[in-house]
Hints:
- It contains 3 helices and 11 strands.
- By secondary structure, the protein is mainly beta.
- A 4-stranded mixed beta sheet has the order 9-8-7-10.
- The protein is globular and about 50 Å long.
Amino acid sequence: MSPQARLCQVPGGRFTMGSDRHYAEEAPAHPVQVAPFLIEATTVTNAAFAAFVEATGHRTVAERPLDPARYPGARPENLAPGSLVFRMTDGPVDTSDYRQWWAWVPGACWRHPEGPGSDLRDRMDHPVVHVAYADAKAYARWAGRDLPTEAEWECAAQGGHDDGREFPWGDELMPGGKCLANFWQGAFPWRNDALDGFAGTAPVASFPANPFGLHDMIGNVWEWTSSWYSARHASGQAGAAPSPCCVPDGARGAAIDASYDPAQPAIRIPRKVVKGGSFLCAESYCRRYRSAARHAQMVDSGMSHVGFRCVVRPA
């Protein structure tokens, strides 16, 4: 049987995208129209990605040396093939400095998620990680599929509920004390109580599906979308007030020029939107395990908490 995930139908239509109640980049909440499409029930697994690599010989971005011209001032050892790996701290740290828990690990890649010496034993049904945008796009092309736009992903995550609920199941994170997704419980980044049963990634479909049959739309791993990132939703930017008679088309998004990181002007690497949060999202630190949450990810950067799922659009 093919390791590709089964496809679930999303009827599309008009829905409310974004949120005015959380992080600034999620605003404004605004109506968006998407056409019907199919989306994979789970994120792409290590087994599915391994089949793609075996068939094509694809070498991921994390398995190739970095171009020093794109990273001015980078130390030579940081230009070797590798990726960013999460490492729990020994105790409380300043959570404004992500360098406390992220480490560049030479040799880390999808085959070796924690670096040399680690492997995929007992993890073939976990989501593939350390995949850059180009890797996700290459897999999607091979599979005859595509990556979702941000609007498509968010519409799918809502599961047909357009009532502003925070999570696919409602507004309570742990209804009845039960974990319905893989996220961090405890004091980030030094104590993970793992009440959900997982200290890292979980096998796909470990938690209940939403009404569309989709698993892990929040938590576990962030998911690539094809949309360029902007600091706010397009309809909330200067000069782009939505017309009262028109609903924005979810196929459109920000322009590439808006995606560059203003905090790193010397590094001109565009960023895509990633959605859904991950096993590292914590109530004490980052509440981005919500349908409306979004984050920026440089297209050349895979990490130990970033994966993807694919869509198929009717011809």
